[in-house]
């Protein structure tokens, strides 16, 4: 029997997780006291022809040691479920999640069940503009001595760092201290082929790039998108009319890219050529002339401008006349006869691209564009319908007012949330990386809920069922602003209502749709347990066990919060519903191979029923039995443990008994 408790019993330092990985893979590099020996690892690497350099490029700032401690610090909260919302018919089986709370705490809760499961992360963190209200705030209370030990720094440095973290700063160092642990954990949640997109502006773009290189690896940097979203002219030097979206994959070995997007403006081009065909019929020269005039109205910032060379049309569609020159000088030389003048056409200086039989076949199929006479070199017809997709481009033109107007149309109020993200930009990213059914998309700076809204639209358009996980702090709205006046006391309330309104709109417009428009709501809480790190302990003595179990009795609501939190520890998705299992007059809860005994009143009759189910019911295949130690005295714990070890076990499935406090 293994015993765990809610208070950490072992020192969690700034590199605990990293050392655990090393210990698992290189146990020979640790002495008997568990101390890491760097020289041993260097010997192993050098023996395998790995160059070990002592010099490297890195980013350091005041507070980095603190950020690393936070990344490794145990969970300090529980998770509570909104049962009234979650049990609504359209929500109860949904795997979409909206979680209220500090996103660092929530990310740590998600680690248990969602590590290596997230296909895409999109975040829009504070930009630290100096006017966006960002300041570093932290409610942790380390003493200088505690922090010095945790971070591995001297006492003077510990005092300096702690003074900084309590100063409500908005410096680059403060922002980096804030974002580092969140990105560090986010990487762990990504699948091997997972992708993260991070919106940012010029204030922290440079520092974010270096930090993300450190966390995700410079080799996994994929590029950044420049999103021109405004036309403001309000700067003394250069007016910044764009922001950035940085992109990294977890591993380029697992994600080879090939990210494609449909060229923007294509539908408008098709529509216009259809109008020209209705006007001119098959007078292709007139259609071409009108098309050239139409394209001239578009500035370079309009995506249609990039396709202006598609200005010809025939019965097969819109095309541009592309070069037919041979790639190897003089490889193919032969006469091509003009279909009208019956004379030999002018030949490209380097000869033709195709051999004569291919050229004849293309001419027969009408795939070669001829000039008015033989004096013009013929061209190949490259159809727009065959080139609709291109690599994901690094520049996007999308007026920021589009997203604001969409939000206004949903809420019926202007400026409920400032600078919401554009759902079409997000949908383009989903398309490019090929989001599919059962994929998870995470946004832990949910804001107005744009990511959830975009994914619902994307799912509907593509007839798939991918899932979102959105996290939003219960941040108060400004009493002088439109959101508060509209009745929203917190940003979280806006997030939740945006998702509801967007889903209702889809359901109303498409009543026959069977897509999942529901979502479940959870929140972090600290109302009854000081910590929930659940560090494993050596076996407690009987007196210690009885002392702990007599200290606390939890009511039904608290027990449900414990179960909700424990699901993550046992790698059960937060959205999964636990099954109520009757053991005579005792109610247990289970999912998959895990069974929870958390209620009081467990009797021998319940134990006998449990053993009977383990032996006789084929679907009841439990390999892990988790007990809430506060509700079981040591005698009951020992009885359960011995019963699991000694029962007949007809299925040959050993049951691991875990007691948690």
Q: Which key features would you list for this structure?
A:
single chain, 661 residues, alpha/beta, Rossmann fold, ten-stranded mixed β-sheet, seven-stranded mixed β-sheet, 21 helices, 17% strand, elongated
Give a quick rundown of the structure:
With 661 residues, the protein is an alpha/beta fold. Helix content is 36%, strand content 17%.
Low-confidence stretches: 530-541
What is the overall pLDDT average? 90
CATH topology of the largest domain: Rossmann fold
CATH top level assignment of the largest domain: Alpha Beta
| Largest sheet: number of strands, sense, barrel closure | 10 strands, mixed
Query: Strand order of the main beta sheet, please?
Result: 2-17-3-16-15-4-5-7-6-14
User: What global shape is seen?
Assistant: elongated
Q: State Rg.
A: 31 Å
Instruction: Please identify, by name, the CATH architecture of the largest domain.
Output: 3-Layer(aba) Sandwich
CATH superfamily of the largest domain: Vaccinia Virus protein VP39
Structural class: alpha/beta
Number of helices: 21
List the domain count as a whole number. 3
- Strand element count: 23
Question: Could you walk me through the main structural features you see in this protein, from its secondary elements to its overall organization?
Answer:
There is one protein chain. The protein is α/β, with parallel strands linked by helices. It has three domains: 82-135 and 176-222 and 245-254 and 400-525, Rossmann fold; 266-388, no CATH class; 535-660, no CATH class. The strands form four sheets. It has a ten-stranded mixed sheet, with helices on both faces. A seven-stranded mixed sheet has the order 18-1-23-22-21-20-19. Strands 9-10-12-11 form a four-stranded antiparallel sheet. The two termini are 14 Å apart.
